[in-house]
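This follows on from our talk about sequence and fold. Can you supply me with one protein entry, sequence and fold together? Could you add the entry underneath, on a fresh line?
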Amino acid sequence: MPPPPAARIRLCTEFDRGTIDRRLFGSFVEHMGRCVYGGIYQPDHPRADQSGFREDVAELIGELGIGLVRYPGGNFVSGYRWEDGVGPRELRPTTLDLAWRSVETNQVGTDEFLQWAEGRRLTPMMAVNLGTRGAAEAAALVEYCNATSPTRYADLRRKHGRADPYDVGLWCLGNEMDGPWQIGHTTAEEYGRRAAAAGRAMRMVDPSIELTVCGSSNREMASYGQWEQTVLEHTHDLVDYLSIHAYYDGRQSDADYLASGEVMSRYIEELTATADAVVARHRSSKRLAIAFDEWNVWTTTPDDTATRRDDEIAVRPPLGEDRYQTLDAVVVGDLLISLLNHSDRVRVACLSLLVNVSAPILTRADGSVLRQTIFHPLAQTARLARGCSLVSSVDGPTLSSPQHGDVPGLAVAACREGDQNAIFLVNRTGEPLPVEIGVVDRPDQLIMEARTVIATPQRLAAGDPETAGPGSLDAVAADGAVMATLPARSWSVIATRDDRGWEDRS
C-alpha cells in the first residue's frame, strides 16, 4: 500500500481555462554563437540536406515537439538589415554583428529560415528591427514575406525563386527595447510611438498579421510596470500580445531556484493586470495576451565556453553553451507548469534558445548531437499537454525561499483532451512527497504512463546529459484516486484515462 498522502490534488473536468494554444510550446533561433551556424545549419556535415540544414538536428527538434520558432533575434535583430540575408548567397555581404561582436556571413537569412520552418511544419514568429531601423523597413519585410502584389519587395521575393508568399502571421515589434544593452535602446514613450508607427505600416501591407509589442526584459528592470503602461498607451488598440522575457539563474540558492515557477506566475499576473488596467482606462473590451517569447534557466553549471577577449570579433563563437544539470530540468518543468496554469493569457512562449546557446539540443565537435537535461520536460509536456488546461485545487507543503518567501512546495498543472488527463507535478521540497490525485467527476482512472526526472547531486559532464532522461514513476489508481510518491526535488507527469468499466476490460 502507498503511504498516506502528504498532499492532495483535486480536479474537475468541468472547470478549465480554455484550450491550450500549441504555440505555447515554441522556441527561438537567433544569430548568436552556434545557434544557426554549426547548429541548425552546417552544410559540410554528413547529415546536411541539400540546403545545408542538419537533418539530425531537425529530427531532435521534431522529437522536442515544438510548434513555433522565433527569428532572427533577440539582440541581433536590432542591428540587422534583412536585405543583407536575401538573394544569391555569393552576393551577400559579410557584416559585423554588433550585438554579439561576431562576423555574420548572411548565408542564412529570411528565405532559408522560412523554408526550413515550412519544411518542418513550424510556425514562424518574425521580429523586425526597431533599434536602428523603422516603419518603412518593417513594412518592406512584411511585403517581402507576405504580399502577392506586383510591387518591389514581393517582386524581389519572386526574383529570388519564391513565387508564393510565406504568409507569416506573427510579428515582433523589435526586441527588449527597455534594455540599455539593446542597440537603439530608447525611452518607453519613444518606443511606444515607434512601435505604433511600424505596426500600422505593417498592417497596411497585410491586415491579417498579429503584432507583439516589447514589454520588460525581466521583472528586475527599474522601469518594470511603468514601461508596459507607457508603451501600451500608444499601442493597446493595435497589438495583440505583450512580449515578456525571463531567465532564472541556477547559481542562486536551491530553494530560490526551485521557487522560479512561482516567480514566473507572479510576473505573468502582474503584467496581465497592468495590460488590463490600460485597456480598461480606454473603456475597451479588448483582452491582450502575453507572448513569453524568451524564457529559460541559466544552468547551475557556469558556462565554460565564453573564453574570448572582450575586444575579439569572431565567426560563430561558442556563446552561452550551458551544460545543464538535472536540477535545471526540474525547474524548466516547473516553469512549464506555470505557463500551462496561465494558458488563458499566455498564448505564445519560446524556450530560448533552440540549439547550442542555453539550449535543449547541443551539437558537438565530433559531429554528434545530444539532448540536454532540459529537453525532456519540454518534450514530454508538449506531447501530453493537449486539450484544455484544468483548474486544480492543491493542499500540500510549503517551501521557504530566502529571496521569495514561502511558496507552495508542490506545483501542479493538469490538462484534459477527450477522456485523457495529464497531470504535471514538481516536488520542490527536499523530501519524498506522497500525493493523492482525485478527479471528482471522473473518479475512476486508468494509469497510462508515469515518468519522473529527479534532481540528483551528481554533476553531469559535457558528454553525460543523454543519461539523464526521465525514468519511471510508481503510480497506482485505486478507490477513486491516483496515488504516487514524488521523489524529492523532482518533475513528474502522470497520464490517465477515464475508466469506462466493462468497455475497458472487454
